[in-house]
Amino acid sequence: MIVTPNVVREVQSHFGCSEMIGGELESQTVLQSAAGDSFWEKRVFGEEVMTASASYYPILSRLTLALLHDSGWYTPDYSYGASLHWGRGQGCGFLDGSCYKWVWPTETKYGEDTSVVPFCRHQQDSAESCVNGRRAVGVCSIRNYPARLPRPFRYFSTRRRGGASPMVDYCPIFLYDFASYQPTGRSCLTPPSTLPTLPVPEVYEPESRCFEHQWEGRAREGVVGGASCHTFSCTRDSVVVDVGGSKVDCSHGLAGEHVAVEFTRNSTGNNTSVHIVCPSYQDLCENYNCPRLCSGHGNCIKGHCRCQPGYYGNDCSYSYLDRLLTCDSVLCQNGGSCTDSGGSGSGGGVFSGDDSGGGGLGFSCQCSVGYTGMMCENRVTSDPCLDLSCPANTHCVRSDLGTVGQCECKADYGGEDCKTFLLCERRGATLS
Protein backbone atom coordinates (compact mmCIF):
# COMPACT_ATOMS: atom_id res chain seq x y z
CA MET A 1 0.00 0.00 0.00
CA ILE A 2 1.33 3.43 -0.98
CA VAL A 3 0.18 5.94 1.67
CA THR A 4 1.92 9.12 0.52
CA PRO A 5 -0.28 12.26 0.62
CA ASN A 6 -0.81 12.92 -3.10
CA VAL A 7 -1.54 9.26 -3.83
CA VAL A 8 -4.08 9.17 -0.98
CA ARG A 9 -5.75 12.31 -2.34
CA GLU A 10 -6.06 10.90 -5.86
CA VAL A 11 -7.38 7.51 -4.71
CA GLN A 12 -10.02 9.10 -2.49
CA SER A 13 -11.05 11.50 -5.26
CA HIS A 14 -11.19 8.87 -8.01
CA PHE A 15 -13.32 6.34 -6.14
CA GLY A 16 -15.25 8.83 -4.02
CA CYS A 17 -14.09 7.13 -0.83
CA SER A 18 -12.70 9.38 1.91
CA GLU A 19 -11.89 6.31 4.05
CA MET A 20 -9.27 4.94 1.66
CA ILE A 21 -5.78 5.21 3.17
CA GLY A 22 -3.68 4.75 0.02
CA GLY A 23 -3.07 3.05 -3.32
CA GLU A 24 -3.15 -0.75 -3.22
CA LEU A 25 -0.25 -2.70 -4.74
CA GLU A 26 -0.43 -5.95 -6.71
CA SER A 27 -0.96 -9.02 -4.54
CA GLN A 28 -0.27 -11.66 -7.21
CA THR A 29 3.16 -12.96 -8.19
CA VAL A 30 3.98 -11.38 -11.54
CA LEU A 31 7.37 -12.65 -12.73
CA GLN A 32 10.33 -14.25 -11.04
CA SER A 33 12.28 -11.07 -11.76
CA ALA A 34 9.55 -8.61 -10.70
CA ALA A 35 7.77 -8.46 -7.37
CA GLY A 36 4.01 -7.94 -7.45
CA ASP A 37 4.28 -4.94 -5.16
CA SER A 38 6.15 -3.07 -7.90
CA PHE A 39 2.79 -2.41 -9.60
CA TRP A 40 -0.64 -0.97 -8.85
CA GLU A 41 -3.27 -3.61 -8.05
CA LYS A 42 -4.89 -4.66 -11.35
CA ARG A 43 -8.27 -5.43 -9.78
CA VAL A 44 -8.48 -1.90 -8.35
CA PHE A 45 -6.81 0.22 -11.05
CA GLY A 46 -7.55 -1.79 -14.21
CA GLU A 47 -6.23 0.00 -17.29
CA GLU A 48 -3.58 2.12 -15.50
CA VAL A 49 -0.27 1.79 -17.30
CA MET A 50 1.58 0.86 -14.08
CA THR A 51 -0.46 -2.28 -13.36
CA ALA A 52 1.22 -5.65 -13.84
CA SER A 53 -0.46 -6.72 -17.08
CA ALA A 54 -0.85 -4.78 -20.31
CA SER A 55 -4.12 -3.31 -21.56
CA TYR A 56 -5.02 -2.52 -25.15
CA TYR A 57 -5.30 1.17 -24.24
CA PRO A 58 -3.10 1.79 -21.17
CA ILE A 59 -3.79 4.97 -19.22
CA LEU A 60 -1.17 7.16 -17.54
CA SER A 61 -3.49 8.57 -14.89
CA ARG A 62 -3.26 11.18 -12.16
CA LEU A 63 -2.52 8.33 -9.72
CA THR A 64 0.92 7.58 -11.20
CA LEU A 65 1.62 11.31 -11.54
CA ALA A 66 0.82 11.63 -7.82
CA LEU A 67 3.33 8.89 -6.99
CA LEU A 68 6.01 10.69 -9.03
CA HIS A 69 5.12 13.90 -7.18
CA ASP A 70 5.45 12.20 -3.79
CA SER A 71 8.89 10.85 -4.75
CA GLY A 72 10.21 14.40 -4.46
CA TRP A 73 11.91 14.21 -7.85
CA TYR A 74 9.08 15.56 -10.00
CA THR A 75 6.47 18.31 -10.07
CA PRO A 76 3.88 16.95 -12.53
CA ASP A 77 1.16 18.86 -14.33
CA TYR A 78 -1.88 16.84 -13.22
CA SER A 79 -3.99 18.16 -16.08
CA TYR A 80 -2.01 15.83 -18.36
CA GLY A 81 -3.19 12.75 -16.46
CA ALA A 82 -5.56 10.80 -18.73
CA SER A 83 -9.04 9.93 -17.50
CA LEU A 84 -9.22 6.49 -15.84
CA HIS A 85 -12.77 5.11 -16.14
CA TRP A 86 -12.14 1.92 -14.16
CA GLY A 87 -14.00 2.12 -10.83
CA ARG A 88 -14.47 5.89 -10.97
CA GLY A 89 -17.03 7.09 -8.44
CA GLN A 90 -17.92 3.53 -7.34
CA GLY A 91 -17.25 4.28 -3.67
CA CYS A 92 -15.50 2.35 -0.93
CA GLY A 93 -17.35 -0.85 -1.84
CA PHE A 94 -15.31 -1.13 -5.01
CA LEU A 95 -12.08 -1.25 -3.02
CA ASP A 96 -12.68 -3.46 -0.02
CA GLY A 97 -13.30 -7.18 0.16
CA SER A 98 -13.97 -9.67 -2.60
CA CYS A 99 -15.61 -9.09 -5.99
CA TYR A 100 -18.09 -11.81 -4.98
CA LYS A 101 -20.56 -9.07 -4.03
CA TRP A 102 -20.42 -7.72 -7.59
CA VAL A 103 -20.79 -11.15 -9.21
CA TRP A 104 -23.75 -12.14 -7.00
CA PRO A 105 -25.46 -8.86 -6.04
CA THR A 106 -28.77 -10.50 -5.04
CA GLU A 107 -26.98 -12.07 -2.08
CA THR A 108 -25.47 -8.75 -1.02
CA LYS A 109 -26.63 -5.20 -0.38
CA TYR A 110 -25.99 -4.11 -3.97
CA GLY A 111 -29.06 -5.58 -5.64
CA GLU A 112 -29.65 -7.01 -9.11
CA ASP A 113 -30.02 -3.64 -10.84
CA THR A 114 -26.68 -2.31 -9.64
CA SER A 115 -24.14 -1.68 -12.40
CA VAL A 116 -21.11 -3.90 -11.81
CA VAL A 117 -18.88 -2.68 -14.67
CA PRO A 118 -15.98 -3.42 -15.09
CA PHE A 119 -16.92 -6.69 -13.36
CA CYS A 120 -19.52 -9.04 -14.84
CA ARG A 121 -21.77 -11.68 -13.34
CA HIS A 122 -22.00 -14.43 -15.94
CA GLN A 123 -21.95 -15.11 -19.66
CA GLN A 124 -25.49 -14.57 -20.83
CA ASP A 125 -27.45 -12.67 -23.48
CA SER A 126 -26.85 -9.30 -21.81
CA ALA A 127 -23.17 -9.80 -21.04
CA GLU A 128 -21.60 -7.11 -23.20
CA SER A 129 -20.35 -3.75 -22.02
CA CYS A 130 -18.08 -0.90 -23.07
CA VAL A 131 -14.37 -1.19 -22.25
CA ASN A 132 -11.05 0.51 -23.03
CA GLY A 133 -12.35 4.05 -22.62
CA ARG A 134 -15.41 3.21 -24.76
CA ARG A 135 -13.19 2.25 -27.69
CA ALA A 136 -14.42 -1.35 -27.75
CA VAL A 137 -17.26 -3.70 -26.86
CA GLY A 138 -16.18 -6.21 -24.22
CA VAL A 139 -17.55 -9.60 -23.25
CA CYS A 140 -17.57 -11.36 -19.90
CA SER A 141 -14.23 -13.16 -19.44
CA ILE A 142 -15.04 -16.41 -17.64
CA ARG A 143 -13.20 -19.70 -18.16
CA ASN A 144 -12.71 -23.10 -16.55
CA TYR A 145 -9.23 -23.78 -15.13
CA PRO A 146 -7.59 -27.24 -14.97
CA ALA A 147 -7.37 -27.08 -11.17
CA ARG A 148 -9.38 -25.54 -8.34
CA LEU A 149 -8.82 -21.85 -7.79
CA PRO A 150 -7.43 -20.61 -4.45
CA ARG A 151 -10.25 -20.50 -1.90
CA PRO A 152 -10.47 -16.65 -1.63
CA PHE A 153 -11.02 -16.45 -5.40
CA ARG A 154 -13.90 -18.91 -5.80
CA TYR A 155 -16.93 -16.92 -6.92
CA PHE A 156 -18.92 -19.72 -8.57
CA SER A 157 -20.28 -23.10 -7.49
CA THR A 158 -17.78 -24.73 -9.85
CA ARG A 159 -14.47 -24.29 -8.04
CA ARG A 160 -12.41 -24.32 -11.24
CA ARG A 161 -14.45 -21.49 -12.78
CA GLY A 162 -13.31 -17.87 -12.66
CA GLY A 163 -12.23 -14.78 -14.54
CA ALA A 164 -9.65 -15.05 -17.31
CA SER A 165 -6.89 -13.09 -15.51
CA PRO A 166 -5.20 -13.93 -12.18
CA MET A 167 -4.03 -10.29 -12.03
CA VAL A 168 -7.59 -9.19 -11.18
CA ASP A 169 -7.89 -11.92 -8.51
CA TYR A 170 -9.78 -14.12 -11.00
CA CYS A 171 -12.72 -11.69 -10.93
CA PRO A 172 -14.81 -11.99 -14.11
CA ILE A 173 -14.45 -8.71 -15.99
CA PHE A 174 -15.46 -7.34 -19.37
CA LEU A 175 -12.59 -7.67 -21.86
CA TYR A 176 -12.21 -6.72 -25.50
CA ASP A 177 -10.06 -9.73 -26.34
CA PHE A 178 -8.74 -12.48 -24.14
CA ALA A 179 -6.84 -14.76 -26.52
CA SER A 180 -8.18 -18.31 -26.67
CA TYR A 181 -10.95 -17.70 -24.15
CA GLN A 182 -13.80 -17.28 -26.61
CA PRO A 183 -15.93 -15.35 -27.28
CA THR A 184 -14.14 -12.06 -27.89
CA GLY A 185 -15.42 -8.51 -28.18
CA ARG A 186 -14.88 -6.08 -31.03
CA SER A 187 -13.20 -2.73 -31.55
CA CYS A 188 -15.28 0.32 -32.43
CA LEU A 189 -12.35 1.82 -34.36
CA THR A 190 -12.05 -0.70 -37.21
CA PRO A 191 -14.57 -3.15 -38.74
CA PRO A 192 -14.36 -6.72 -37.37
CA SER A 193 -13.48 -9.53 -39.77
CA THR A 194 -17.01 -10.91 -39.33
CA LEU A 195 -19.75 -8.34 -38.91
CA PRO A 196 -22.18 -9.17 -36.08
CA THR A 197 -25.88 -9.59 -36.87
CA LEU A 198 -27.46 -6.50 -35.35
CA PRO A 199 -30.84 -4.82 -35.79
CA VAL A 200 -29.11 -1.44 -35.76
CA PRO A 201 -26.08 -0.63 -37.92
CA GLU A 202 -22.88 -0.07 -36.02
CA VAL A 203 -20.31 2.45 -37.22
CA TYR A 204 -16.64 1.45 -37.03
CA GLU A 205 -14.25 4.39 -37.42
CA PRO A 206 -11.71 6.30 -35.29
CA GLU A 207 -14.40 8.71 -34.03
CA SER A 208 -16.80 5.93 -32.95
CA ARG A 209 -17.31 4.99 -29.33
CA CYS A 210 -19.18 2.24 -27.47
CA PHE A 211 -22.57 2.81 -25.82
CA GLU A 212 -24.53 0.43 -23.59
CA HIS A 213 -28.18 -0.18 -24.34
CA GLN A 214 -31.26 -2.22 -23.47
CA TRP A 215 -33.44 -3.63 -26.21
CA GLU A 216 -37.23 -3.89 -26.07
CA GLY A 217 -38.06 -7.54 -26.58
CA ARG A 218 -35.80 -10.02 -28.33
CA ALA A 219 -34.39 -7.52 -30.80
CA ARG A 220 -30.94 -8.98 -31.27
CA GLU A 221 -30.26 -12.15 -33.22
CA GLY A 222 -27.31 -14.50 -33.26
CA VAL A 223 -25.08 -12.61 -30.80
CA VAL A 224 -25.24 -11.35 -27.24
CA GLY A 225 -26.53 -7.85 -26.60
CA GLY A 226 -25.84 -4.93 -24.34
CA ALA A 227 -23.51 -2.55 -26.22
CA SER A 228 -22.78 -1.25 -29.71
CA CYS A 229 -20.57 1.21 -31.60
CA HIS A 230 -21.83 4.62 -32.78
CA THR A 231 -20.59 8.07 -33.65
CA PHE A 232 -21.42 11.03 -31.42
CA SER A 233 -20.98 14.76 -31.09
CA CYS A 234 -20.71 17.18 -28.18
CA THR A 235 -22.69 20.36 -27.65
CA ARG A 236 -22.22 22.81 -24.83
CA ASP A 237 -24.10 20.62 -22.34
CA SER A 238 -25.01 17.35 -24.10
CA VAL A 239 -23.65 14.17 -25.67
CA VAL A 240 -25.56 13.52 -28.91
CA VAL A 241 -25.39 9.86 -30.03
CA ASP A 242 -26.22 8.84 -33.61
CA VAL A 243 -28.07 5.50 -33.55
CA GLY A 244 -28.99 4.32 -37.03
CA GLY A 245 -29.56 7.90 -38.17
CA SER A 246 -31.64 8.87 -35.12
CA LYS A 247 -30.20 11.27 -32.55
CA VAL A 248 -30.14 10.59 -28.81
CA ASP A 249 -29.64 13.75 -26.75
CA CYS A 250 -27.99 12.95 -23.41
CA SER A 251 -27.77 16.16 -21.41
CA HIS A 252 -25.63 16.61 -18.29
CA GLY A 253 -28.29 15.38 -15.89
CA LEU A 254 -29.12 12.18 -17.79
CA ALA A 255 -25.90 10.24 -17.14
CA GLY A 256 -26.86 6.63 -16.43
CA GLU A 257 -30.47 7.13 -17.51
CA HIS A 258 -32.11 5.08 -20.28
CA VAL A 259 -33.28 7.17 -23.24
CA ALA A 260 -35.49 5.52 -25.87
CA VAL A 261 -34.74 6.01 -29.56
CA GLU A 262 -36.61 4.60 -32.56
CA PHE A 263 -34.93 3.88 -35.87
CA THR A 264 -35.48 1.81 -39.00
CA ARG A 265 -33.83 -1.59 -39.22
CA ASN A 266 -31.76 -1.85 -42.38
CA SER A 267 -32.49 -5.54 -42.94
CA THR A 268 -36.30 -5.41 -42.61
CA GLY A 269 -37.31 -1.78 -42.98
CA ASN A 270 -39.30 -2.10 -39.75
CA ASN A 271 -38.98 0.32 -36.85
CA THR A 272 -37.11 -0.85 -33.77
CA SER A 273 -36.73 0.77 -30.36
CA VAL A 274 -33.69 0.69 -28.14
CA HIS A 275 -32.91 2.36 -24.83
CA ILE A 276 -29.45 3.92 -24.89
CA VAL A 277 -27.77 4.27 -21.50
CA CYS A 278 -26.58 7.87 -21.50
CA PRO A 279 -22.85 8.30 -20.81
CA SER A 280 -21.53 11.01 -18.56
CA TYR A 281 -20.61 14.26 -20.27
CA GLN A 282 -17.21 14.08 -18.57
CA ASP A 283 -16.40 10.68 -20.13
CA LEU A 284 -16.81 11.79 -23.72
CA CYS A 285 -16.86 15.56 -24.01
CA GLU A 286 -14.46 16.87 -21.38
CA ASN A 287 -11.60 16.57 -23.87
CA TYR A 288 -13.48 16.49 -27.16
CA ASN A 289 -11.57 19.20 -29.04
CA CYS A 290 -8.79 17.02 -30.47
CA PRO A 291 -8.38 16.22 -34.18
CA ARG A 292 -10.28 13.05 -35.09
CA LEU A 293 -10.55 12.20 -31.38
CA CYS A 294 -6.89 11.15 -31.65
CA SER A 295 -7.92 8.42 -34.14
CA GLY A 296 -8.70 6.15 -31.21
CA HIS A 297 -4.98 5.74 -30.53
CA GLY A 298 -4.41 8.44 -27.92
CA ASN A 299 -5.85 10.51 -25.12
CA CYS A 300 -7.06 14.06 -25.64
CA ILE A 301 -5.42 16.38 -23.10
CA LYS A 302 -5.86 20.16 -23.26
CA GLY A 303 -6.80 19.96 -26.92
CA HIS A 304 -3.69 17.96 -27.87
CA CYS A 305 -3.37 14.23 -28.51
CA ARG A 306 -1.10 12.19 -26.26
CA CYS A 307 -0.55 9.14 -28.45
CA GLN A 308 -0.45 5.56 -27.20
CA PRO A 309 2.85 3.68 -27.67
CA GLY A 310 3.38 2.87 -31.34
CA TYR A 311 1.48 5.89 -32.74
CA TYR A 312 2.36 9.52 -33.43
CA GLY A 313 1.18 12.64 -35.26
CA ASN A 314 -1.13 15.45 -34.21
CA ASP A 315 -4.09 13.04 -34.47
CA CYS A 316 -2.17 9.80 -33.60
CA SER A 317 -3.01 8.45 -37.05
CA TYR A 318 0.55 7.40 -37.94
CA SER A 319 1.98 4.07 -36.85
CA TYR A 320 5.69 3.58 -36.24
CA LEU A 321 5.40 0.11 -37.72
CA ASP A 322 3.79 1.13 -41.01
CA ARG A 323 7.03 1.74 -42.87
CA LEU A 324 10.52 3.14 -42.54
CA LEU A 325 10.06 6.89 -42.87
CA THR A 326 12.64 9.26 -44.33
CA CYS A 327 12.68 12.99 -45.04
CA ASP A 328 11.34 12.24 -48.54
CA SER A 329 8.03 11.15 -47.00
CA VAL A 330 7.92 13.31 -43.88
CA LEU A 331 6.81 16.91 -43.43
CA CYS A 332 8.05 18.46 -40.19
CA GLN A 333 5.34 20.88 -39.12
CA ASN A 334 5.42 24.46 -37.81
CA GLY A 335 8.76 25.40 -39.35
CA GLY A 336 10.66 22.31 -38.20
CA SER A 337 13.50 20.92 -40.31
CA CYS A 338 14.02 17.26 -41.17
CA THR A 339 17.28 15.31 -41.03
CA ASP A 340 17.74 11.75 -42.29
CA SER A 341 19.17 9.70 -39.44
CA GLY A 342 19.92 6.53 -41.35
CA GLY A 343 17.48 4.28 -39.53
CA SER A 344 17.06 0.80 -40.89
CA GLY A 345 14.56 -1.93 -40.46
CA SER A 346 13.21 -5.13 -41.92
CA GLY A 347 9.71 -5.11 -43.27
CA GLY A 348 8.74 -1.81 -41.68
CA GLY A 349 9.70 1.01 -39.39
CA VAL A 350 11.82 0.70 -36.29
CA PHE A 351 10.36 2.22 -33.14
CA SER A 352 13.04 3.92 -31.07
CA GLY A 353 10.83 5.16 -28.27
CA ASP A 354 11.95 8.75 -28.85
CA ASP A 355 8.84 10.94 -29.04
CA SER A 356 10.75 14.08 -29.94
CA GLY A 357 12.47 12.83 -33.09
CA GLY A 358 12.46 9.98 -35.58
CA GLY A 359 15.42 8.11 -34.10
CA GLY A 360 15.49 4.59 -35.52
CA LEU A 361 12.67 5.53 -37.90
CA GLY A 362 15.17 7.06 -40.32
CA PHE A 363 14.41 10.74 -39.75
CA SER A 364 14.47 13.38 -37.06
CA CYS A 365 12.55 16.67 -36.88
CA GLN A 366 14.36 19.61 -35.28
CA CYS A 367 11.52 21.77 -33.99
CA SER A 368 11.31 25.55 -33.91
CA VAL A 369 11.24 27.20 -30.48
CA GLY A 370 7.79 26.77 -28.97
CA TYR A 371 7.00 23.42 -30.64
CA THR A 372 7.61 19.80 -29.74
CA GLY A 373 6.57 16.28 -30.80
CA MET A 374 7.63 13.71 -33.39
CA MET A 375 6.52 15.96 -36.27
CA CYS A 376 6.76 19.25 -34.30
CA GLU A 377 2.95 19.06 -34.18
CA ASN A 378 2.49 20.13 -30.54
CA ARG A 379 2.68 23.76 -29.56
CA VAL A 380 4.10 24.63 -26.15
CA THR A 381 1.02 26.58 -25.15
CA SER A 382 2.04 28.14 -21.85
CA ASP A 383 4.95 29.34 -19.77
CA PRO A 384 5.96 26.33 -17.62
CA CYS A 385 6.61 28.68 -14.70
CA LEU A 386 3.05 30.02 -14.61
CA ASP A 387 1.64 26.90 -12.95
CA LEU A 388 4.65 26.31 -10.69
CA SER A 389 4.44 27.69 -7.15
CA CYS A 390 7.97 28.08 -5.78
CA PRO A 391 8.56 28.40 -2.01
CA ALA A 392 10.26 31.33 -0.28
CA ASN A 393 13.77 32.27 -1.44
CA THR A 394 13.39 30.35 -4.70
CA HIS A 395 12.35 31.18 -8.25
CA CYS A 396 11.37 29.25 -11.37
CA VAL A 397 14.08 28.50 -13.95
CA ARG A 398 13.07 27.37 -17.47
CA SER A 399 14.81 24.65 -19.47
CA ASP A 400 16.71 25.53 -22.66
CA LEU A 401 13.67 24.76 -24.83
CA GLY A 402 11.32 26.57 -22.49
CA THR A 403 9.14 23.49 -21.97
CA VAL A 404 10.02 22.61 -18.36
CA GLY A 405 10.30 24.75 -15.25
CA GLN A 406 11.84 23.94 -11.87
CA CYS A 407 12.36 25.81 -8.61
CA GLU A 408 15.93 26.83 -7.75
CA CYS A 409 17.43 28.96 -4.99
CA LYS A 410 17.59 32.69 -5.59
CA ALA A 411 20.99 34.40 -5.63
CA ASP A 412 22.54 34.62 -2.13
CA TYR A 413 20.39 31.73 -0.83
CA GLY A 414 21.34 28.06 -0.46
CA GLY A 415 21.32 25.07 1.84
CA GLU A 416 18.37 22.80 2.56
CA ASP A 417 15.13 24.31 1.19
CA CYS A 418 17.10 27.49 0.28
CA LYS A 419 16.71 28.82 3.83
CA THR A 420 20.36 29.83 4.33
CA PHE A 421 21.24 33.45 3.49
CA LEU A 422 24.74 32.94 2.11
CA LEU A 423 25.87 36.55 2.66
CA CYS A 424 25.19 36.25 6.39
CA GLU A 425 26.89 32.85 6.52
CA ARG A 426 30.06 34.26 4.99
CA ARG A 427 30.09 36.93 7.70
CA GLY A 428 29.55 34.41 10.50
CA ALA A 429 25.94 35.40 11.13
CA THR A 430 22.64 33.58 10.73
CA LEU A 431 19.07 34.57 10.04
CA SER A 432 16.63 34.19 12.91
From TrEMBL:
<keyword id="KW-0325">Glycoprotein</keyword>
<dbReference type="InterPro" id="IPR000742">
    <property type="entry name" value="EGF"/>
</dbReference>
<feature type="disulfide bond">
    <location>
        <begin position="390"/>
        <end position="407"/>
    </location>
</feature>
<keyword id="KW-0645">Protease</keyword>
<dbReference type="GO" id="GO:0007155">
    <property type="term" value="P:cell adhesion"/>
</dbReference>
<keyword id="KW-0378">Hydrolase</keyword>
<feature type="domain" description="EGF-like">
    <location>
        <begin position="323"/>
        <end position="377"/>
    </location>
</feature>
<dbReference type="GO" id="GO:0016020">
    <property type="term" value="C:membrane"/>
</dbReference>
<protein>
    <recommendedName>
        <fullName>Leishmanolysin-like peptidase</fullName>
        <ecNumber>3.4.24.-</ecNumber>
    </recommendedName>
</protein>
<keyword id="KW-0482">Metalloprotease</keyword>
<dbReference type="GO" id="GO:0046872">
    <property type="term" value="F:metal ion binding"/>
</dbReference>
<feature type="disulfide bond">
    <location>
        <begin position="367"/>
        <end position="376"/>
    </location>
</feature>
<keyword id="KW-0479">Metal-binding</keyword>
<feature type="disulfide bond">
    <location>
        <begin position="409"/>
        <end position="418"/>
    </location>
</feature>
<feature type="domain" description="EGF-like">
    <location>
        <begin position="381"/>
        <end position="419"/>
    </location>
</feature>
<dbReference type="GO" id="GO:0004222">
    <property type="term" value="F:metalloendopeptidase activity"/>
</dbReference>
<dbReference type="Pfam" id="PF01457">
    <property type="entry name" value="Peptidase_M8"/>
</dbReference>
<comment type="similarity">
    <text>Belongs to the peptidase M8 family.</text>
</comment>
<keyword id="KW-0862">Zinc</keyword>
<dbReference type="GO" id="GO:0006508">
    <property type="term" value="P:proteolysis"/>
</dbReference>
<keyword id="KW-1015">Disulfide bond</keyword>
<dbReference type="InterPro" id="IPR001577">
    <property type="entry name" value="Peptidase_M8"/>
</dbReference>
<dbReference type="Pfam" id="PF23106">
    <property type="entry name" value="EGF_Teneurin"/>
</dbReference>
<dbReference type="GO" id="GO:0005737">
    <property type="term" value="C:cytoplasm"/>
</dbReference>
<keyword id="KW-0245">EGF-like domain</keyword>
